[in-house]
Amino acid sequence: MKTKNLTFVAIVAALICCACSQQKEEQTDSSGPLASHVIFIGIDGWGTYSVDKAQIPAIRALMQRGAYTVHKRSEMPSSSAPNWASIFMGSNVELHGYTQWGSKTPEIPSRVILKNDIYPTIFQITRDARPEGEIGVIADWDGINYLVDTLSCNSMINSPNYPDSGSVAGDLAARYIIDKKPLLMAVVFDNLDHVGHADGHDTPEYYAALNQIDGEIGKIVQAAKEAGIYDDCVFIVTSDHGGINKGHGGIDLLEMETPFVISGKGIANLCEFSESMLQSDIAPTIARILDVPTPQVWSGHPLSFVLNKE
Questions:
Q1: What's the pLDDT score for residue 6?
Q2: Where are the alpha helices (DSSP H) in 90-203?
Q3: Is the Cα dihedral 198, 204, 207, 212 positive or negative?
Q4: What is the pLDDT of residue 308?
C-alpha cells in the first residue's frame, strides 16, 4: 500500500511539473512584443511563378535577411476581396463571409461581429490592445477600405483618382512612415493586377510593373530608416492571388500560389521555409509580433517557427 501511495504521489508531482512547464511555455510565448512596428506590403496579383524571373532587388533583400515561402495558398475563389479579407481578418472565407471579387459586405453572414459592424480585423484588435498606437492603411484600390475596419485606423488613404492617374501609394506610405512612425500600417499596391488583366500575367508588361512596385518598396524601407524605426520594425510582403493569362479566380496553382516574405526585428533568418501556410495565418503572426491577443473566432495560426523568441 505504501509503495502504491508513493507511486501516486510521484505521478501527481510529474503532472504538476508538466503543467507548470506548459504554463511557462505559454508565458514565454506571450512575453511582450517582438518589434514595435509592423509594415505590411500587399501586391495585388503577385503570383509565385514570377519570383525567379523578376527583377525585384528590394524584395530579395528582405528575403535574404528574413524568411519566405513561395507556396502560400490563396483562398478559393482566388480573387481579391476574399483573400485580402482572410489576410486582415485571420480567418477563412467560411468564417468572415466575403466571397466575391469586389465584396463590400459579407455574402455569408460573418460568424461574429465584435464592433464597428465588421468581422474582427488585425487593425481592430490592435486598436483595442494599443489604443494609443498609430494605425494606418494606404491603398490604390478603394475596395480595400471595406476589409480593414477603417474606424480602427487613424488614417485610411487611397491613391487619388487611381487608376486613371496611376499609383502614388509608395510616396504616400513613405511620407506617412516618416511623419507618424506607425505601430501598424498596411500599403496595398494594385497596378500589377491591373496590368495582369490588361496585358496578361507572365508578360514583359507584368514584369515591368512588378519591377516598378519593387522600387516603391525600396522607398518604404528607406523611409523606415529615415524615421528611425527600421531596426525595430518587421516588414511583410505578400499577395492576395496570382493569375493565368489575363485572369484569376480559379484553382490553377498559377492563380493560387503566392509568395510571403517576412523580415526584420525578431524574425529568424531562415531564408526559404518549407512549412505550409494560408492567408489566414498572416494576421495572427502580426498579432504575435505586436503581442496583441487574438479573438477565439480566428482560424489562422501564428507562424511561430519564423519568430526569434530570444
A1: 44
A2: 93-96, 122-129, 169-180, 191-198
A3: negative
A4: 85
Rg (CA), the chain: 21
What is the distance between the alpha carbons of residues 8 and 163, in angstroms, rounded to a whole number? 72
Look up residue 188 and give its amino acid: V
Return the SS3 of 91.
coil
**Parts of the chain with a pLDDT under 70:** 1-30, 309-310
Residue with grid cell 501527481, as numbered in its chain: 12
How buried is 135 (Cβ within 10 angstroms: 0-12 exposed, 13-18 middle, 19+ buried)? buried
Q: List pLDDT tens digits, range 183-242.
A: 999 999 999 999 999 999 999 999 999 999 999 999 999 999 999 999 999 999 999 999
Distance separating alpha carbons of residues 45 and 180, to the nearest angstrom: 29
Beta strands in 51-199 (DSSP E): 66-73, 135-139, 155-158, 184-189
Cross-sheet strand order for the sheet of 37-43: 155-158, 135-139, 184-189, 37-43, 233-238, 257-264, 66-73, 271-272
Q: Which residue is listed with cell 535577411?
A: 65
For 229, the grid coordinates are 524605426
pLDDT score of 309: 62
Structural contact between residues 180 and 130, judged by C-beta atoms closer than 8 angstroms:
no
CA 97/CA 21 separation, integer angstroms: 39
